[in-house]
Amino acid sequence: MTTLTIGFLLIGLLIVMVLIGMQIAYALFSIAFLGIWLIRDSIGLAFRMLELTAYSGIADYLFATIPLFVLMGLIVSVSNVGRDTFEVAEELLHRMLCGLGVATVAANTIFAAVTGVSIASAAVFTRVAVPEMTRHGYRPAFSAGTVAGSSVLGMLIPPSLLLIIYGVLAEVSIGGMFVAGIIPGILLALGFVVMLMLITLLFPNFVFSDAEAARSRRLQRDGERMPLRVMMAKLVPIVLLVILVLGGLYSGYFTPTEAGGVGAFGALVVALVKRRLNRHRLWEVMKQTGTISVSILLLLIAASFYSRMLSIAGLPNAIADLVQSGGFSPMGFLFLYAVIILLMGMILDSTSILLIMVPIAAPIAQSLGIDLMQFGIVTVIAVEIGLLTPPFGISVFTVHNTLDDASVPVEKIFAATLPFIAVMLVVLILVATVPAVATALL
Known about the structure:
By secondary structure, this protein is mostly helical. It is 79% helix and 0% strand. The chain has one domain. The protein has 23 helices and no strands. The longest helix is centred in the last third of the chain and has 35 residues, at 279-313. It is globular. The termini are far apart. InterPro entries: DctM, TRAP_DctM. The complex comprises the extracytoplasmic solute receptor protein and the two transmembrane proteins. The chain crosses the membrane at residues 6-39, 60-82, 102-130, 142-168, 174-207, 228-247, 253-273, 294-315, 335-360, 372-393, 413-441.
């Protein structure tokens, strides 16, 4: 049996192990260890490479970015910033077609700029936006679908944990990935807004349980104005935090790691000023930060070990040769790769997909002349779509479980996210065919 055959069989075994429920980190460690042992016929070498990977895999200063941004996102989540952002967006946008839906997208866009995690957005806005939208005559399933669909912005608009993980796996600049995500993130948010307005105009019964009653409530809402002083008090903290972190990062004043530290400190100040952080909550935030960060860093060590096994097996080069001999152009490979990611998104979580696919695909993309920044944005958008597609659809299930309403079955929420998936596919095709969408600001 050749080295390449062993490598391909091990990748198949890895997918099977993940599908039957084995944690992705343990599956990666097991497959990588077994692969090095079989290919080099030396268990001692496998242990030695595991030791070296465990030491060097996360020794770089850059990896401090992960716990710092996680800490910032968690502190922001407990500070009621999400609720404040939605209330201001509601006040400013409620007169528009599908005003509360647009407000949800706008609030998610701003919230994503300081959290970087879709699941956090989904949980926060399910509690905030869905009851308010339902009270104003929107269908509960549509309201929940709007929250789930717009929550994926947290994975693309920087700072994003998926962009950080991709940057580490593909060995590209994390700051560069953040910059590359700006235009696609804005396009995605604007696409969601246009889509919501068109659906409301063309299919009002899909949006409202009673369109006439909803219109009456909107007119009644005009008389309930939020004082400008209150609006500014709610909006200023998050705007300052976004300017502090992203402004310092994009201007080159902060490195990504420094931006994470400054952001975490800024979020702590906001939470203390708003009196939302006592000793108990601070302890819970620190514990969650540790749990999430250690999990991610363990995954990155496992992915590094897995990448070394792939290199020893020669798989990336072999697959690149197959792609080139098969007549695939760079664009053809990019679309084939996106389809594979979309299919994997139906059965695997986003981090697992990145850990399995990026070490294989990134070297191939580079050999075909595809910009790895553009490739990363294509990857993240395709992975994001998996957050909304059954049967896995973790954002949809997060909204469903947080909502805990028997009258809103999960299949109706999946149906309500279909227009969001359509917009994401359009943006995915745009980024794949026009590299400047991702690279113009670099």
